[in-house]
């Protein structure tokens, strides 16, 4: 059962081949069996079985939708009512959200089952899942390698078949990079497509939730439920949500693919380049036309991102002060002591580093030199994208410069770690949709292909990615020991 | 040396919206602590602000009322600082691009009109309240007020005395209540201000170093705090010290200001645009709508009252300082059909005095304008005398009856039957032969005695004019 996709399982459930309770029980057993991967921070066994029971009733009443009874899991950044929502931090180790995020509400309404909450880099700050207070997640393909981050628990859980699909969030590549490292499909929607209400903020102007699944077809099903306007999020866009499944098989004849030459420079490992080039060759066989394009400002993405994201996070994380909820130090002497020790003890070093960078960048005398400059670069990068996307339908390139690196390999060098997101960050700065699909292997580790589309063009991205999965079987490979 | 005072005010007016500026929680005052704070106000992880449209409309109304520039595009920013009653660790405010730009306001001080510049007015959320008593050495936090919409109105440093500052603050206070954008309740903190005060030698162009006195919530405190501060600053300079740029608190018990924090200790607020909120785009149509919602403004009303009702400046100010008083006055004029002068005298005289004595404002008057007009109509048509009217007024104050019902019930109707009055006058003359003699021998003062006797016997109901005329006739020397 666990090797089936959401689309297949939905058919089985509706045909009565198995119940959601059986399906859920099987997944809960797998979660236990593979607990060594450290994917889950919280397993909500009781709640999951209760949801499965209700789903079975809906199915037998003929009221089931495409996600009814499907066992999913959620990144621990989404608030879940009455369930611990830690955001991977000691700061919120004791925090039970009193409300559901909009995304969670929507999955609940669709009758999906929540297996639990997934491990992640602390407050989504990291590229390897190693900044989590709950310990690193292992890459299911190579237990000595990282799963990527920050949605590392989500990617690993889906790759290891512990959940059929999972939610992730992507601020600078946090869905696409772990999806690539774990050999699954991950979609970051257009900024504003999925509500951020109840999604604990890292960098508000960049954060976007999205689906992580084994197939593009499943990603379309999950996105269908996640996407849509939410009056509680002022940055969500009031634009109709198309049917993401109907056009999946549309022909790609005449599709114009742009290859940003900046994505294929010296930083890209030659074996990686080869995998990406072979994937693109597959597209030409499908009738697409490939042209080289240039985005001269894209190399400024990382410096701009590491001003804007920390600046926003330095304010976003101020609410964690030990006053109302979350970690509070023992016996504070006075107000300052309460702040200093609660925050000092509650946050890990990467989070502190970014708060410090952001605070510095916004300070009087530095704001113009850093924050404003970074915003200017952001606009230039967006303009680059707008220009090339007026000439081509989609852009393609690598997701990461290398396959999954070793656990501990980059933890001592933050800059080296930041560079692993060099191909994903620009997309967040521009607010565009992009996805990562499995495209091959290097050193027995999965490699992803990144496809970037125009604003709100998720349907086309899914179509382009789905056709690739119809021609290849990279997405069907399973890590050893997982069957 | 002669010194000149320079004052600028930052007035915080709480906008009269039903819900908070970024959440759906109620803004009603006086609820149990923390019962009107929702997830957004508490700053829970993951929550997001959504702008209350009404707050924008109210800010616009203020902007057009003072003829200010309205920004077609304004931005909310985060003002970062840590305090326990600031749940998010930042206040959402407007910094570089406020919704209301430059405007002006005229004030009158000692008969002189002076123009005061308004630099800007911006929208922001209020913080909660820290409660330092009743918690055994700990502090309590009440977040009911957190997220209440405020309009911060910043003036130019155009005021030169505490009196001018108070006149300006009163002017804004009157204006915001006219506009219906703020209830102006100063006890509840709906209207308060920070005063920036400095002094300089008269004639000097540069400003002196200023101190900011925070959170003044009465006109009296504004005046006293500024006067204290001016004296303190002059004393310092004259004794060879300098004024320190700092934030100070006014202690009304001791009537002094105290240092709160110096410039060096001041927060670097690290303002930056709030990425959770979109820029506010104001169209011409919205500005037009706000203009259409403007009532007659205080200055225009005052001018009209002077022209239409012939009242003097002082009376016009009294009648128009609150829109409710002005409305009451005009309703009384139109309902009573009486001479304007009578209405003016009674509204600004007896009614104002009674309200003042009981600490009520006009909207709380036990006598509504209709019943009040009923009373004035009976004075005008001579049914009762002015003296009896005061008696009827008392009765109106303490009952729901109309003036006519009271006059009927208590038999207060003026005696206009000349025969009846004549009989009483004859009786008085017959019973007071001594006084008659005195009067006839030239003691004019005794005349008042006869009037008093007649009024006494008629229980004040005789028409005084008539009594006078008849007595004169009867006592002809």
Could you please describe the fold and organization of this structure?
The complex is a heterodimer of chains A (483) and B (477). Chain A has 483 residues and is α/β, with parallel strands linked by helices. In chain A, 37% of the residues lie in helices and 13% in strands. Chain A contains 15 helices and eleven strands. The mean pLDDT of chain A is 97. Chain B has 477 residues and is α+β, with helices and mostly antiparallel strands. In chain B, helix 9 runs antiparallel to helix 10. In chain B, the strands form four sheets. In chain B, strands 5-6-9-1-10-11-12-13 form an eight-stranded mixed β-sheet. Chain B has a three-stranded antiparallel β-sheet with strand order 4-3-14, with no helix packed on it. A two-stranded antiparallel sheet of chain B has the order 2-15. Chain B has three domains: 3-290, no CATH class; 296-410, no CATH class; 418-474, Arc Repressor Mutant, subunit A (Orthogonal Bundle), CATH 1.10.10. Chain B is elongated, with a radius of gyration of 30 Å. Chain B has 15 helices and 15 strands. The chains are: A alpha/beta (483), B alpha+beta (477). Chain A binds chain B through residues 78-79, 85, 87, 92, 95, 97-99, 101, 196-201, 203-205, 231-235, 311-312, 314-315, 317-321, 323-325, 335, 339, 359, 362-364, 367, 371, and chain B through 39, 42-51, 78, 80, 82, 84, 87-90, 141, 268, 270-272, 275-278.
Question: What keyword list fits this structure?
Answer:
heterodimer, A: 483 residues, alpha/beta, Amidase signature (AS) enzymes, 15 helices, 11 strands, 37% helix, B: 477 residues, alpha+beta, Arc Repressor Mutant, subunit A, 3 domains, three-stranded antiparallel sheet, 19% strand, elongated
DSSP, total strands of chain A: 11
How is the biggest beta sheet of chain B arranged?
8 strands, mixed
Q: Biggest sheet of chain B, strands in spatial order?
A: 5-6-9-1-10-11-12-13
Low-pLDDT parts of chain B are: none
Give the termini distance of chain B in whole angstroms. 72 Å
CA-atom Rg of chain B in angstroms? 30 Å
Helix content of chain B: 25-40%
The tally of helices of chain B reads: 15
Helix content of chain A: 25-40%
């Amino acid at each position: 059962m666990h090797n089936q996709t959401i689309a297949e399982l939905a058919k089985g459930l509706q045909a009565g081949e198995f119940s959601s309770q059986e399906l859920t029980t099987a997944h809960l057993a797998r979660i236990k069996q593979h607990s060594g991967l450290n994917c889950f921070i919280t397993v909500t066994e009781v709640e999951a079985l209760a949801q499965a029971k209700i789903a079975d009733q809906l199915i037998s009443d003929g009221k089931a939708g495409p996600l009814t009874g499907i066992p999913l899991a959620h990144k621990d950044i989404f608030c879940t009512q009455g369930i611990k929502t830690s955001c991977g931090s000691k700061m919120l180790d004791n925090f039970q959200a009193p409300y559901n995020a909009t995304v969670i509400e929507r999955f609940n309404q669709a009758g999906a089952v929540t297996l639990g909450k997934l491990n992640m880099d602390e407050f989504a700050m990291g590229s390897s899942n190693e900044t989590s207070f709950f310990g690193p997640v292992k890459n299911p393909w190579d237990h000595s390698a990282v799963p990527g981050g920050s949605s590392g628990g989500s990617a690993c859980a889906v790759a290891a078949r512990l959940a059929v699909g999972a939610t992730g969030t992507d601020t600078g590549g946090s869905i696409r990079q772990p999806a690539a490292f774990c050999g699954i499909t991950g979609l970051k929607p257009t900024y504003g497509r999925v509500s951020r209400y109840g999604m604990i903020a890292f960098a508000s102007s960049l954060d976007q939730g999205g689906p992580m699944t084994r197939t593009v077809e499943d990603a379309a099903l999950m996105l269908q439920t996640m996407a849509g306007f939410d009056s509680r999020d002022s940055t969500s866009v009031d634009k109709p949500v198309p049917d993401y499944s109907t056009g999946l098989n549309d022909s790609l004849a005449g599709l114009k693919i742009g290859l940003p030459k900046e994505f294929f420079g010296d930083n890209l490992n030659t074996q990686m380049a080869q995998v990406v080039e072979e994937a693109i060759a597959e597209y030409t066989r499908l009738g697409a036309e490939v042209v080289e394009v240039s985005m001269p400002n894209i190399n400024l993405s990382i410096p701009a991102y590491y001003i804007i994201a920390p600046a926003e996070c330095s304010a976003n994380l101020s609410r964690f002060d030990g006053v109302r909820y979350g970690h509070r130090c023992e016996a504070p002497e006075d107000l300052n002591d309460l702040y200093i020790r609660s925050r000092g003890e509650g946050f890990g070093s990467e989070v502190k580093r970014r708060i410090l960078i952001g605070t510095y960048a916004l300070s009087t005398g530095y704001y113009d030199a850093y924050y404003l400059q970074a915003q200017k670069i952001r606009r230039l990068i967006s303009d680059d994208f707008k220009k090339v996307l007026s000439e081509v339908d989609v852009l393609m390139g690598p997701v990461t410069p290398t396959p999954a690196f070793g656990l501990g390999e980059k933890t001592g060098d933050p800059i080296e770690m930041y560079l692993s997101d060099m191909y994903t960050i620009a997309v967040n700065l521009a607010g565009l949709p992009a996805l990562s699909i499995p495209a091959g292997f290097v050193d027995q580790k999965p490699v992803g292909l990144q496809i970037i589309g125009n604003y709100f063009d998720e349907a086309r991205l899914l179509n382009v990615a789905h056709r690739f999965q119809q021609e290849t079987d990279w997405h069907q490979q399973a890590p050893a020991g997982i069957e | 040396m002669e010194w000149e005072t320079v004052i600028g005010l930052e007035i915080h007016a709480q906008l009269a919206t039903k819900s908070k500026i970024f959440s759906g929680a109620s803004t009603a005052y006086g609820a149990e602590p923390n019962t009107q704070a929702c997830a957004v106000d508490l700053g829970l992880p993951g929550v997001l602000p959504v702008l209350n449209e009404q707050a924008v409309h109210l800010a616009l109304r203020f902007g057009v009322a003072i003829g200010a520039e309205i920004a077609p595009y304004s931005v909310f920013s985060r003002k970062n600082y840590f305090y326990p009653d600031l749940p998010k660790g930042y206040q959402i405010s407007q910094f570089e691009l406020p919704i209301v730009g430059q405007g002006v306001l005229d004030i009158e001080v000692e008969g002189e009109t002076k123009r005061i510049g308004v630099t800007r007015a911006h929208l922001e959320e209020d913080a909660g309240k820290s409660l330092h008593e009743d918690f055994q050495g700990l502090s309590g936090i009440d977040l009911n007020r957190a997220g209440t919409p405020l309009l911060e109105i910043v003036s130019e440093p155009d005021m030169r005395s505490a009196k001018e500052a108070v006149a300006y603050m009163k002017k804004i206070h009157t204006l915001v209540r006219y506009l219906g954008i703020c209830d102006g309740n100063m006890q509840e903190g709906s209207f308060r201000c920070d005063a920036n005060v400095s002094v300089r030698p008269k004639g000097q162009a540069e400003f002196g170093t200023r101190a900011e006195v925070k959170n003044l919530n009465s006109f009296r405190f504004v005046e006293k705090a500024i006067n204290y501060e001016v004296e303190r600053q002059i004393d310092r300079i004259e004794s060879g010290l300098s004024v320190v740029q700092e934030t100070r608190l006014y202690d009304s018990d001791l009537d002094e200001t105290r240092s709160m924090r110096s410039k060096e200790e001041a927060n670097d607020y690290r303002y930056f645009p709030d990425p959770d909120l979109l820029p506010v785009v104001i169209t011409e149509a919205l500005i037009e709508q706000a203009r259409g919602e403007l009532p007659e403004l205080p200055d225009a009303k005052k001018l009209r009252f002077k022209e239409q009702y012939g009242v003097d400046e002082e009376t016009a100010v009294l009648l128009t300082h609150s829109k409710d008083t002005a409305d009451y006055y005009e309703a009384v004029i139109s309902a009573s059909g009486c001479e304007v002068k009578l209405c003016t005298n009674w509204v600004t005289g007896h009614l104002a005095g009674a309200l003042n004595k009981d600490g009520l404002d006009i909207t709380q008057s036990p006598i509504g304008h209709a019943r009040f007009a009923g009373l004035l109509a009976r004075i005008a048509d001579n049914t009762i005398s002015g003296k009896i009217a005061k008696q009827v007024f008392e009765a109106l104050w303490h009952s729901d009856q109309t003036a006519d019902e009271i006059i009927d019930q208590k038999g207060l109707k003026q005696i206009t039957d000349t025969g009846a009055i004549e009989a009483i006058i004859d009786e008085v003359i017959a019973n007071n032969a001594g006084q008659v003699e005195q009067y006839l021998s030239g003691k004019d003062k005794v005349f008042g005695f006869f009037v008093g006797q007649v009024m006494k016997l008629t229980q004040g109901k005789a028409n005084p004019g008539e009594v006078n005329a008849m007595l004169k006739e009867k006592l002809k020397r």
